[in-house]
Amino acid sequence: xxxxxxxxxxxxxxxxxxxxxxxxxxxxxxxxxxxxxxxxxxxxxxxxxxxxxxxxxxxxxxxxxxxxxxxxxxxxxxxxxxxxxxxxxxxxxxxxxxxxxxxxxxxxxxxxxxxxxxxxxxxxxxxxxxxxxxxxxxxxxxxxxxxxxxxxxxxxxxxxxxxxxxx
Length: 167
What we know:
Blueprint: H1 3-22, H2 26-35, E1 55-63, E2 72-74, H3 91-105, H4 119-131, E3 139-147, E4 157-161, E5 165-166
Antiparallel strand pairs: 1-2, 1-3, 3-4, 3-5
Helix pairs in contact: 3-4
């Protein structure tokens, strides 16, 4: 590439970077948003406006003709390592589970009978059914429990219990 095209490309990338940074300052934000008709200036949200304040846990149990199993906790991903701030491949598993729980728990009461047909419900049912393949049983049931640490309550409260489903 010649000198002038590379100089032009460097200028465009520099301008984009400067506008991306200035977008987070109140004096420039409205002007940049109004004039960015192609939406080329990104919005990076490093911190959520309302951070997560709930911990969700998934439990399941298997029913058989002989006996019912106790509730078992499902873990998502391995325990975080010290280098987790750089490389944490299991964070997506936990984030997906959190999003699924919020969607499932946030289902309006009028649609509770139809919740078994929703994607979050079917994803959790599929995951739990896969975990139960080696167990002897006829049906499976799962539950979502939650803890709200910000309220200084370390007790689990049940947020959702599924119907029993054939394995």
